[in-house]
Amino acid sequence: MAKKVKKSGKIRVGIVGVGIGGVHAQGYAKLPDVEIAALCDLNTARAEGVGERYGVKSIFSDYSAMLAEAQLDAVSVCTPNALHAAVAVAALEAGCHVLCEKPLSISAAEGKKIVDAAKRAKGKFMIGMNNRFRGDSQVLKKYIESGELGDIYYAKAGWIRRTGIPGMGSWFTSKEMAGGGPLIDIGVHALDLTLYLMGNPKPVSVYGATYAKFGPFGKGGGSWGVPANGGSYDVEDLACGMIRFENGASLALEASWAQHCAGDKLYNEVYGDKGGATMEPLRIFTERYGSPIDITPACPDRNGHEAEVAHFVECIVQDKQPIATADQALDVMKILDALYASSEKGTSIALK
């Protein structure tokens, strides 16, 4: 039985960045052993609004001050991507457990700073890949681990939108702040979930391509994020690629914020030598007694974000290893880096 590391009192959590951080707050607020002790955002008025909703009075505009003054046990890092490394490393060095929103950072080199800090730290680090925690994801993972699909040799994954560019001209569309466009923003979800279902095989080569046919012309804007007039758009609005793994398996990936398609779609498909599966909704394709059959498993209706936060807190309380680790997040970043490099060079990229 795992030992308890928190014998009394509530776990004091601070949240840096109250955009997606508001979703984290919603998850923490439902846990009886957690107190949201502090919020930090450059937009203090927005932080105060979230604070009023959850009864948080300690509001900061500087995360260093929050870490020094708020006496925190854990921190959610929900900043723009370029700030993930600085905030996560500081929180780990302050002795806090850290839940960091995806992606790990804007590049594998920046992400490695977090991985190295996590290895040195006493606190736990978990990457915020909420799609792993959905009810259908967990059910399919159990099917795969039980051997129902056999050896998975091919997968397809993607997240595409018809008109969904977030915050046109904001940090979302700045390569310096975001690291890229839909590939690193939403494609990372489709990629991570599929890698998780496949058992996180080791990637050996990547071929990718990116396109910007909407954003540079002010088209394709969506409802998420706050547009910034006069801001830059120097990222892609569609990316695609193929990833090969050491075990011979391959994965086809696509991600877009805007394209002329039927509509928005998040999908994950895995194919093994004994069966295949597709999600949204979850269906399993296999055979019994020489005849093909389809299975539609019952899946719990689980909010992935809330389940993710609950798992993070459970790992703190019970001293468990999170199922979404820093090393796995770094492997994802290496693939994303290689996809962008492949697009720029027009050749496949070998991964060490």
Q: Could you give the order of the helices and strands?
A: EHEHEHEHEHEHEHHEEEEEEEHHE
Broad shape: globular
Share of β-strand residues: 15-25%
CATH class of the largest domain: Alpha Beta
Uncertain ranges: 1-8
CATH superfamily of the largest domain: Dihydrodipicolinate Reductase, domain 2
Cα-to-Cα separation, first versus last residue:
38 Å
Helix percent reads 25-40%
Specify the CATH architecture of the largest domain.
Answer: 2-Layer Sandwich
CATH fold call of the largest domain = Dihydrodipicolinate Reductase, domain 2
Task: Return the structural class.
Answer: alpha/beta
What's the number of helices? 10
Into how many domains do the coordinates divide?
A: 2
Radius of gyration: 20 Å
- Spatial arrangement of strands, main beta sheet: 14-13-12-11-7-10-9-8-15
Mean pLDDT: 96
Q: What's the total number of strands?
A: 15
Largest sheet: 9 strands, mixed
Description of the structure:
The structure is a single chain. By secondary structure, the chain is α/β, with parallel strands linked by helices. It folds into two domains: 11-131 and 305-324, Rossmann fold (3-Layer(aba) Sandwich); 132-303 and 333-350, Dihydrodipicolinate Reductase, domain 2 (2-Layer Sandwich), CATH 3.30.360.10. The chain contains ten helices and 15 strands. The strands form two sheets. Strands 14-13-12-11-7-10-9-8-15 form a nine-stranded mixed beta sheet. A six-stranded parallel beta sheet has the order 3-2-1-4-5-6, with helices on both faces. Helix 6 packs parallel to helix 8. Residues 1-8 have low confidence and may be disordered.
